[in-house]
Amino acid sequence: MDKKIYLTLATVTILLIGAGCNQATPQPKININTQNTIPTNKVTPPATDNTINTKVENKTIPNTKTFTVKANNYKFDQTNIIVNQGDEVEIVFVNQEGFHDFVLDEFNARTKQLTANNSETIKFIADKVGTFEYYCSVGKHRQMGMVGKLIVE
To answer: Which of 10, 18, 68, 118 lies 20 to 30 A from 59 at CA?
Structure first.
C-alpha cells in the first residue's frame, strides 16, 4: 500500500509541476485609449488692421451685426442700418402693434407677417455694396412710410 501512496504522491507532484510550467508568461499591459479624438480647427488671431473677422483654416467667418427693428403702425423705429460688405446681418424684428413684416428684397430676407407682440429673427450676408430699402409689405404700409434703409459700405 505504501507503493500506491508514493505513486499517487509522485503523480500529483508531477501534475502540479507540469501545471506550473504551462502558465503563460505575463505580458506587459497595453493602455488603449478608447476616447474618440475630435479634430479642432486652428484659429488665427485677427488681422493687424483691427478688423474683427477671424480666419479658420483659411476661411473667413463674417462679423455678425445684430439689430432690433421694432414695428408700430406705419413706422419702424430703425430707419437706417449701416453694415460693411461681407457682414452677417441679424435682424430681430419685433412687432409691437398691428400686423406687419420686414422685407429686404435684394438679400431675399423677409419675416412672416406677424400680429402684435410677436417677433422673428432673420439672418443674411450683406454681400452687395449700396443702399437698399426695407419695408413692410402689408397693404399700403410701404406707401404710408413704413420703410427704412440698409446701407452696405
So the answer is: 68
Q: Which domain holds residue 129?
A: 62-152
With cut-offs at 50, 70 and 90, classify the pLDDT of residue 49. very low
CATH code (residue 96): 2.60.40.420
- Which residue, among 89, 91, 90, has the nearest Cα to 114 in the 3D structure? 91
For the segment 79-95, the average pLDDT, to the nearest whole number, is 96
By DSSP bridging, strand 88-95 and strand 64-72 are: parallel
The x, y and z cell numbers of residue 76, run together, are 419702424
148 falls within a domain: yes
What per-residue confidence (pLDDT) applies to 51?
46
147: in domain: yes
Is the entire prediction scored with pTM above 0.70? no
Rounded to an integer, what distance in angstroms lies between the CA atom of residue 43 and that of residue 31? 32
- Helix (H/G/I), strand (E/B), else coil: 20: helix
How large is the C-alpha radius of gyration of the chain? 38
Q: Which amino acid type is present at position 112?
A: K
Place of cell 480647427: 41
Which of 5-19, 23-37, 77-91 is predicted most confidently?
77-91
